[in-house]
Amino acid sequence: MTTLTAASPGHRYYRWIVTAGLALYWLVMLVATHVPDIPSDFDPGIGDKLEHKIAYALLGFGLGIVWHAWNCQVPWRTAAMLFGVAALYGGFDELTQPLFGRECDLRDWFADLQGAATGLLAALVCVWSWNRWMRKATLDRRPEDRRE
To answer: Where are the domains of the chain?
Structure first.
């Protein structure tokens, strides 16, 4: 088994793939939240607040995974900063929606915050699990690094 280290070509591709994926998702999210009249064919019918929570959970998860791809660790301070980014974007999103004939709702922003926190927490669990698994795989492969 080969490890995916920060210097390996596979890691470089992974970095750019997850970064491009997040950028594309964020762009689609920006456009979708500013479309004046969403056709009923595209409305999933799960409720506005749940849509916000899911959208921002995916954004929060993506932010955490992209940060991990570039820095290998996501400490709590960084997670708080990433949550702040999602919170600021959520506020920007809500405040600019009236410019496009949509409604600005503080409860939508609270749903955004809940979703972002959930997504970031899920990303932290994935990062912690991945780092733990990689550490164990590396130690299992190199007997001289095993702890006695």
So the answer is: 9-145
